[in-house]
Specification:
The chain is an alpha/beta fold. It folds into two domains: about 150 residues, Rossmann fold; about 80 residues, DNA polymerase, domain 1 (Orthogonal Bundle). The chain is about 40% helix and about 20% strand. The protein has nine helices and ten strands. The strands form three sheets. It has a six-stranded mixed sheet, with helices on both faces. A two-stranded antiparallel ribbon has the order 2-3. A two-stranded antiparallel sheet has the order 9-10. Strand 9 and strand 10 form a beta hairpin. The longest helix has 19 residues. It is globular.
């Protein structure tokens, strides 16, 4: 993979969950019928117009084949750690979320895979593209994509970033240690980014496992947290059986 920004990309992988969440939130309105009845709704024509303008911008900017990725039903991480995103059940999606997703599916190339998240689907396709020698870019504001090697475009910052393979692996190990409160898995309790960086002197799995064990946790729990933090990469999903191939540590 080259660190020089290419003139064009072969493949462009868009985080559809974040895309439509932001658009529907911007196009959500509340109508008051009387003092006891407020109705929240989405202006779908406005939302679709925003989505089309965004897609046109991405196509002109990258000159590549666009794919929008969405999270499917079910989630393998909830089987690994039942508290994963449990708190989000109380938070509703913005009005129009499902409808806009269906409208985009009619016009653009979209992908959804049950049992895994949009992040995983993007990680699988993005790393497979790199293996095939294709230039590929992820479009998302999600910081977790720094655990995947290759190009990322962050719309909030209007900036491209290239993540080297060793940087991606280190970022994933750091995420394993710190956990993610927003997603509801703890990592190593009490460890923040500064402490995690001190633990990873060499950037090895053994350092992560030792940190968990030395703080009273099992090696199995450490592996569990690593799987929670890991966005799937090529060969970590069986497309025939629709089963995740869970990451396994390699012992030296």
């Amino acid at each position: 993979m080259s660190e020089r920004l290419p003139d064009k990309f072969d493949r462009v992988h868009i985080d559809g969950d974040i895309l439509i969440y932001g658009i529907c939130s911007a196009c959500e309105y509340c109508a008051r019928f009387d003092e006891d009845l407020d109705v929240v709704f989405c202006n779908l024509n406005e939302a679709m117009g925003m989505a089309e303008a965004t897609m046109a911008k991405y196509e002109a900017m990258t000159k590549g084949k666009l794919t929008i990725h969405f999270t499917g039903s079910g989630n393998f991480r909830k089987d690994l750690y039942p508290e994963y995103k449990a708190h989000r059940k109380k938070v509703r999606k913005p009005a129009g979320f499902k409808a806009l997703k269906e409208m985009l599916d009619q016009k653009y190339h979209c992908m959804t895979e049950n049992g895994i998240e949009a992040d995983d689907l993007i990680g699988l396709c993005h790393t497979r593209d790199a293996h095939r020698g294709l230039t590929s870019v992820i479009i998302s504001t999600d910081k977790d994509f720094k655990t995947i090697p290759g190009w990322i475009y962050n719309p909030d910052h209007d900036a491209f970033t290239f993540v080297k393979p060793d940087e991606a692996d280190r970022n994933w190990l750091l995420q394993t240690l710190t956990g993610d409160k927003a997603d509801g898995y703890p990592g190593l309790e009490g460890v923040g980014p500064v402490t995690a960086a001190k633990i990873l002197k060499q950037g090895t799995w053994q350092e992560v496992e030792d940190a968990f064990v030395n703080n009273g946790f099992t090696a199995e729990f450490a592996v569990n947290q690593a799987r929670m933090a890991r966005i799937l990469r090529m060969d970590e999903y069986d497309w025939d059986s629709r089963k995740v191939r869970l990451w396994q540590p390699v012992k030296n």
